[in-house]
Protein backbone atom coordinates (compact mmCIF):
# COMPACT_ATOMS: atom_id res chain seq x y z
CA UNK A 1 0.00 0.00 0.00
CA UNK A 2 1.29 3.48 -0.80
CA UNK A 3 2.52 5.72 1.99
CA UNK A 4 1.71 9.41 1.75
CA UNK A 5 2.89 12.43 3.70
CA UNK A 6 0.66 13.72 6.48
CA UNK A 7 -0.02 16.99 4.62
CA UNK A 8 -1.29 15.09 1.54
CA UNK A 9 -4.37 13.69 3.32
CA UNK A 10 -7.56 14.88 1.61
CA UNK A 11 -11.24 14.45 2.58
CA UNK A 12 -12.44 11.03 1.42
CA UNK A 13 -8.98 9.41 1.74
CA UNK A 14 -8.94 6.17 3.70
CA UNK A 15 -5.88 5.64 5.86
CA UNK A 16 -4.59 3.02 8.26
CA UNK A 17 -3.84 4.70 11.62
CA UNK A 18 -3.42 3.28 15.14
CA UNK A 19 -4.38 -0.19 13.93
CA UNK A 20 -7.73 0.91 12.46
CA UNK A 21 -9.19 2.02 9.14
CA UNK A 22 -10.18 5.70 9.10
CA UNK A 23 -11.75 7.97 6.49
CA UNK A 24 -10.73 11.62 6.44
CA UNK A 25 -13.88 13.71 6.90
CA UNK A 26 -12.32 17.22 7.08
CA UNK A 27 -8.80 18.49 6.67
CA UNK A 28 -7.45 21.90 7.59
CA UNK A 29 -3.90 23.02 6.90
CA UNK A 30 -2.48 25.15 9.71
CA UNK A 31 0.68 27.24 9.62
CA UNK A 32 1.28 28.61 13.10
CA UNK A 33 3.57 31.59 13.68
CA UNK A 34 6.02 29.36 15.51
CA UNK A 35 6.93 25.82 14.50
CA UNK A 36 6.20 23.82 11.40
CA UNK A 37 2.97 23.57 9.45
CA UNK A 38 0.62 20.64 9.99
CA UNK A 39 -2.67 19.22 8.79
CA UNK A 40 -5.50 19.02 11.33
CA UNK A 41 -7.55 16.02 10.17
CA UNK A 42 -10.94 14.84 11.42
CA UNK A 43 -11.08 11.06 11.03
CA UNK A 44 -14.01 8.64 11.24
CA UNK A 45 -13.50 4.95 11.97
CA UNK A 46 -14.95 2.79 9.19
CA UNK A 47 -15.61 -0.16 11.51
CA UNK A 48 -17.30 1.41 14.54
CA UNK A 49 -18.04 5.03 13.48
CA UNK A 50 -15.99 6.69 16.25
CA UNK A 51 -14.38 10.04 15.46
CA UNK A 52 -10.86 11.31 16.10
CA UNK A 53 -9.04 14.60 15.54
CA UNK A 54 -5.38 14.11 14.66
CA UNK A 55 -2.46 16.34 13.67
CA UNK A 56 -0.18 15.19 10.89
CA UNK A 57 3.07 16.98 10.09
CA UNK A 58 4.45 16.83 6.56
CA UNK A 59 7.22 14.47 7.78
CA UNK A 60 4.66 11.95 9.12
CA UNK A 61 4.04 9.02 6.79
CA UNK A 62 0.61 7.35 6.74
CA UNK A 63 -0.59 4.28 4.93
CA UNK A 64 -3.24 5.09 2.32
CA UNK A 65 -5.74 2.27 1.75
CA UNK A 66 -7.71 1.57 -1.40
CA UNK A 67 -11.01 -0.21 -1.01
CA UNK A 68 -12.21 -2.67 -3.62
CA UNK A 69 -15.74 -1.99 -4.87
CA UNK A 70 -17.95 -4.85 -6.05
CA UNK A 71 -21.47 -4.75 -7.42
CA UNK A 72 -23.57 -7.36 -5.65
CA UNK A 73 -27.22 -8.29 -5.94
CA UNK A 74 -29.53 -8.19 -2.93
CA UNK A 75 -31.34 -11.51 -2.48
CA UNK A 76 -33.25 -11.48 0.83
CA UNK A 77 -33.21 -10.52 4.52
CA UNK A 78 -33.07 -13.02 7.36
CA UNK A 79 -32.79 -12.37 11.13
CA UNK A 80 -31.51 -8.79 10.70
CA UNK A 81 -28.92 -9.87 8.12
CA UNK A 82 -28.99 -8.92 4.42
CA UNK A 83 -27.89 -11.59 1.95
CA UNK A 84 -26.03 -10.43 -1.18
CA UNK A 85 -24.69 -12.42 -4.14
CA UNK A 86 -21.62 -11.66 -6.23
CA UNK A 87 -22.81 -11.56 -9.86
CA UNK A 88 -19.54 -13.03 -11.19
CA UNK A 89 -18.68 -15.80 -8.70
CA UNK A 90 -22.24 -16.37 -7.36
CA UNK A 91 -20.81 -16.40 -3.80
CA UNK A 92 -23.23 -15.20 -1.14
CA UNK A 93 -22.38 -13.03 1.85
CA UNK A 94 -24.40 -11.84 4.84
CA UNK A 95 -24.09 -8.29 6.15
CA UNK A 96 -25.92 -6.63 9.06
CA UNK A 97 -28.99 -4.63 7.98
CA UNK A 98 -27.65 -1.46 9.63
CA UNK A 99 -24.72 -1.30 7.15
CA UNK A 100 -27.01 0.77 4.87
CA UNK A 101 -27.95 3.21 7.65
CA UNK A 102 -30.96 5.44 6.90
CA UNK A 103 -31.04 4.31 3.24
CA UNK A 104 -32.12 0.79 4.28
CA UNK A 105 -35.82 1.28 3.29
CA UNK A 106 -34.79 1.88 -0.35
CA UNK A 107 -33.29 -1.61 -0.70
CA UNK A 108 -35.45 -3.67 -3.09
CA UNK A 109 -35.37 -7.34 -4.11
CA UNK A 110 -32.85 -7.98 -6.88
CA UNK A 111 -31.29 -4.49 -6.53
CA UNK A 112 -27.60 -4.13 -7.37
CA UNK A 113 -25.71 -2.61 -4.44
CA UNK A 114 -22.10 -1.34 -4.41
CA UNK A 115 -20.18 -2.95 -1.52
CA UNK A 116 -16.71 -1.73 -0.50
CA UNK A 117 -14.21 -4.31 0.73
CA UNK A 118 -10.92 -4.05 2.57
CA UNK A 119 -9.21 -7.38 1.87
CA UNK A 120 -12.10 -9.79 2.65
CA UNK A 121 -14.00 -7.51 5.05
CA UNK A 122 -17.09 -5.65 3.83
CA UNK A 123 -17.00 -2.11 5.25
CA UNK A 124 -19.86 -0.28 3.56
CA UNK A 125 -22.74 -0.74 1.16
CA UNK A 126 -24.41 1.88 -1.04
CA UNK A 127 -27.79 1.67 -2.76
CA UNK A 128 -28.15 3.36 -6.19
CA UNK A 129 -28.51 7.14 -6.10
CA UNK A 130 -31.95 7.05 -7.73
CA UNK A 131 -34.63 4.49 -6.89
CA UNK A 132 -38.16 4.06 -8.23
CA UNK A 133 -40.87 3.86 -5.55
CA UNK A 134 -44.66 3.88 -5.55
CA UNK A 135 -46.70 6.46 -3.63
CA UNK A 136 -48.92 4.70 -1.13
CA UNK A 137 -50.64 7.74 0.38
CA UNK A 138 -50.80 11.45 -0.38
CA UNK A 139 -53.33 14.27 -0.44
CA UNK A 140 -55.60 14.34 -3.51
CA UNK A 141 -54.84 16.68 -6.39
CA UNK A 142 -56.54 20.06 -5.89
CA UNK A 143 -57.49 21.89 -9.07
CA UNK A 144 -55.99 25.34 -9.36
CA UNK A 145 -53.18 24.59 -6.90
CA UNK A 146 -50.30 25.07 -9.32
CA UNK A 147 -48.02 27.34 -7.33
CA UNK A 148 -44.44 26.84 -8.46
CA UNK A 149 -42.94 25.82 -5.12
CA UNK A 150 -45.84 24.09 -3.40
CA UNK A 151 -45.08 20.52 -2.36
CA UNK A 152 -47.21 18.07 -0.36
CA UNK A 153 -46.16 15.16 1.87
CA UNK A 154 -46.40 11.62 0.52
CA UNK A 155 -45.75 8.20 2.06
CA UNK A 156 -43.96 5.71 -0.19
CA UNK A 157 -44.48 1.94 -0.38
CA UNK A 158 -41.34 1.49 1.77
CA UNK A 159 -42.65 3.75 4.57
CA UNK A 160 -40.42 6.74 3.78
CA UNK A 161 -42.06 10.19 3.71
CA UNK A 162 -41.03 12.61 0.96
CA UNK A 163 -42.34 15.88 -0.40
CA UNK A 164 -43.85 15.66 -3.91
CA UNK A 165 -45.33 18.19 -6.35
CA UNK A 166 -49.11 18.70 -6.19
CA UNK A 167 -49.76 16.94 -9.55
CA UNK A 168 -48.47 13.56 -8.29
CA UNK A 169 -51.16 11.25 -6.90
CA UNK A 170 -51.55 8.04 -4.93
CA UNK A 171 -50.46 4.88 -6.77
CA UNK A 172 -48.01 6.66 -9.09
CA UNK A 173 -44.40 5.54 -9.47
CA UNK A 174 -41.79 8.23 -8.81
CA UNK A 175 -37.99 8.40 -8.79
CA UNK A 176 -36.46 9.36 -5.40
CA UNK A 177 -32.89 10.49 -4.68
CA UNK A 178 -31.63 8.16 -1.91
CA UNK A 179 -29.02 10.63 -0.68
CA UNK A 180 -31.31 13.62 -0.16
CA UNK A 181 -34.65 11.76 0.19
CA UNK A 182 -36.16 14.12 -2.41
CA UNK A 183 -38.52 13.66 -5.34
CA UNK A 184 -36.69 13.68 -8.70
CA UNK A 185 -39.31 12.89 -11.36
CA UNK A 186 -42.18 10.65 -12.34
CA UNK A 187 -41.09 7.15 -13.30
Can you summarize this structure?
This protein is mainly β and 187 residues long. The protein has strands at residues 3-5, 14-17, 20-30, 38-45, 51-57, 61-65, 68-78, 81-86, 92-96, 112-118, 121-126, 130-138, 152-156, 161-164, 173-177, 182-186.
3D architecture notes:
The protein is an all-beta fold. It is built from no helices and 16 strands. It has a six-stranded antiparallel beta sheet with strand order 1-6-2-3-4-5, with no helix packed on it. A hairpin with a 2-residue loop joins β10 and β11. It is flat and about 70 Å long. The model has no long low-confidence stretch (mean pLDDT 88).
Number of strands: 16
Helix share bin: under 10%
Using the alpha-carbon principal axes, give the shape: flat
Order of helices and strands: EEEEEEEEEEEEEEEE
The major β-sheet equals: 6 strands, antiparallel
Number of helices: 0
Please state the structural category. mainly beta
Alpha carbon gap, first and last residue: 44 Å
Question: How confident is the prediction overall: mean pLDDT?
Answer: 88
What's the gyration radius in Å? 22 Å
Amino acid sequence: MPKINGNEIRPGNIIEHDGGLWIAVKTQHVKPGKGGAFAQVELKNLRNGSKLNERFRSADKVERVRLEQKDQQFLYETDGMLVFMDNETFEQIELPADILGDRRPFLQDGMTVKIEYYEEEALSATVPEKVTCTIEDTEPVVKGQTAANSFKPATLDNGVRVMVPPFVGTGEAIVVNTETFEYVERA
